[in-house]
Design brief:
This protein is α+β, with helices and mostly antiparallel strands and about 350 residues long. The protein has eleven helices and 16 strands. Strands 12-13-14-15 form a four-stranded antiparallel beta sheet, with no helix packed on it. The chain has a three-stranded mixed beta sheet with strand order 2-1-3. Strands 8-9-10 form a three-stranded antiparallel beta sheet.
């Protein structure tokens, strides 16, 4: 049986008027027009709304998130998540650049609001349904730059230009909105902004036990830490803060921080050759001939978007015993043989 649209399923159902404080997060904005939504749907996904006394109005004008009134776009995004779960359609369409669910800061506020009104798990899941379009916005010099969080790497090249690398087998690509060259101070400030936004959303994801979002943020951190000049390299203390460790359940474990970082970055493992990147070999083969220790060369089909276009063919050269590296297309990376991910 097909799910009925809201026009037929709840056409004559009572409405709940949501009273708002302002149209944006700016406190000087005038009060926004109230939003009329299906009362049954709102109460289904929020226990706070469900526990309201017999009324046709839900006053959200006095609710503060981190000292700021709840904005209209946040409430509309919450209603969109509820309506998607109930009707598979939006309450009110929002463009990606206006949809809080499509930005790291916006999603942080949206999930905080959902938590404040005691939303259901399906509602939280619906709030995280646009992770593949999730972007992080940070200031680099005088320019605001949008970074994708879906496994794209970002780094500064030798001429101090910000580059994006969609996959590990491609060259870095220029970013039109980024300045031609960034000073060291600008690069550091940029990295701090990126780390701060990732830290707060990672903390909230762990706190709310939203595993799809946790895994998405882990993938983002991993991608932005691949290279020695990556945006997040050397900023792990700013990302894996005490509150993140506490929310992730590793704060009280001996070496818990290192275990979590190693698990996220994928660097916990073994090497079979001495390397400047990985240090001395942790296992040194003694029963292989020189011929058996030669690099292995083959073509492979891409199965992970981080490595390139799915189903594309890439040339691979795997040198486990000489340099402990793997060459994918035009780029070479150190090889780590993982024993297994850390499990809580």
């Amino acid at each position: 049986m097909n799910k009925r649209s809201r026009s037929t399923a709840f056409y004559s159902k009572p409405k709940l008027r949501l009273k708002l404080a302002c149209t944006t997060t700016a406190p000087t904005e005038p009060a926004a027009a109230p939003l009329d939504a299906d009362k049954q749907v709102v109460c289904l996904f929020s226990s706070v709304a469900a526990e309201l006394p017999e009324t046709d109005e839900w006053d959200l004008s006095g609710l503060l998130l981190y000292g700021q009134p709840v904005s209209r776009d946040i409430v509309v995004a919450w209603l969109n998540a509820a309506y998607q779960a109930a009707y598979e359609e939006d309450y009110e369409a929002q463009q990606p650049d206006q949809d809080p669910a499509c930005s790291v800061e916006g999603l942080y506020m949206l999930l905080s609001f959902a938590d404040a009104v005691d939303s259901t798990r399906p509602l939280f899941k619906a709030c995280c349904s646009r992770l593949q379009r999730l972007q992080l916005h940070a200031q680099l010099g005088q320019q605001q730059v949008a970074l994708d969080t879906n496994g794209v790497s970002y780094f500064f090249n030798v001429t101090q230009q910000l580059r994006r690398q969609p996959s590990l087998i491609e060259y870095g690509l220029p970013i039109p909105a980024a300045p031609d060259a960034a000073t060291t101070a600008q690069q550091q400030a940029f990295g701090q902004q990126v780390a701060a936004q990732i830290e707060q959303l990672l903390w909230l994801a762990h706190s709310l036990q939203l595993q799809p979002l946790v895994q998405h943020m882990h993938s983002c951190i991993r991608a932005m830490s691949f290279f020695s000049n990556s945006v997040l390299r050397e900023l792990y203390d700013e990302v894996f803060t005490p509150r993140v460790l506490e929310a992730a359940g590793v704060a009280s474990l001996p070496g818990g921080k290192k275990m979590l970082i190693d698990s996220v970055l994928g660097t916990q493992g073994l090497t079979l050759a001495d390397s400047l990147d990985t240090g001395p070999a942790s296992l040194r083969p003694i029963s292989l001939t020189q011929e058996q220790q030669q690099p292995l060369k083959f073509d492979a089909v891409v199965k992970c978007s981080m490595l390139g276009e799915p189903c594309a063919t890439v040339a691979v050269e795997l040198d486990l015993f000489g340099t402990s590296t793997i060459k994918l297309g035009v780029n070479t990376f150190p090889v780590h043989l993982r024993i297994g991910p850390y499990t809580q």
